[in-house]
Amino acid sequence: MNLDLIGAFMVGVVGSAHCIGMCGGIASLISIDPNVPKLNSKKITNIVGYNLGRLSSYALLGGILGGALASLVELSQLTQLLTGLRVVAAILMIALGLYIGQWWFGILKVESIGKGIWRYISPIAQKLIPIKHPLHAIPLGFLWGWLPCGLVYSMLSWAIVSGSALAGAGTMLAFGLGTLPSMLAFGVGAAFINQLKSSSLFKRTAGALLIIYGSYTLILAVSMFIAH
């Protein structure tokens, strides 16, 4: 199996606390029905649909950006551009680990990049709340996937340098699947997940793992850059 896909999946797993902080509120909101306090099939369908839409947006973005850069490199023969962007992607991963571990918050500046786009998308997403039909959860999740998020942007930098549209989509899909267990559990109200996202030990462990993986990919990228 592709090690990049495994790495992307694991980033999703260890970074899920950040996902809960960013998207957990909406995941809980779509399962709330004051007339039906208990969990039922409609609520579960809403949660699954929301996450299906969210993962679809990740895969689409990864495919578009990965394919665009691959085409640019192929046409221009600027292979060093791809290697240089791999270095940037690794640095972003380290910065993300520092943020999740609560040691440094510089990655928040990266999140601000998408705020301009989100200003236009947010009103459309808000119109789908509350969910009137289970199928509406899918476009809601798709739109919410564009929420400015340092974790998603860091993974998009991986998708960009993946080498193809298919690999870019696969990278983002693997990342999304890694976040899925925690998001589904949080969506149905798992108290343990809610406590976990506030645990300093969990945050620092997850942050350290991301820093280690980012450092490993940075060393490989720099080695490739020097070799060229």
TrEMBL record:
Superkingdom field: Bacteria
Keywords, sorted A to Z: Membrane, Transmembrane, Transmembrane helix
InterPro entries: UreH-like_TM_dom
Residue ranges constituting the Urease accessory protein UreH-like transmembrane domain according to the UniProt record: 8-215
TM annotation in the entry: 6-32, 52-73, 85-105, 137-160, 172-193, 205-227
The protein's name in its UniProt record: Sulfite exporter TauE/SafE family protein
Organism: Vibrio agarivorans
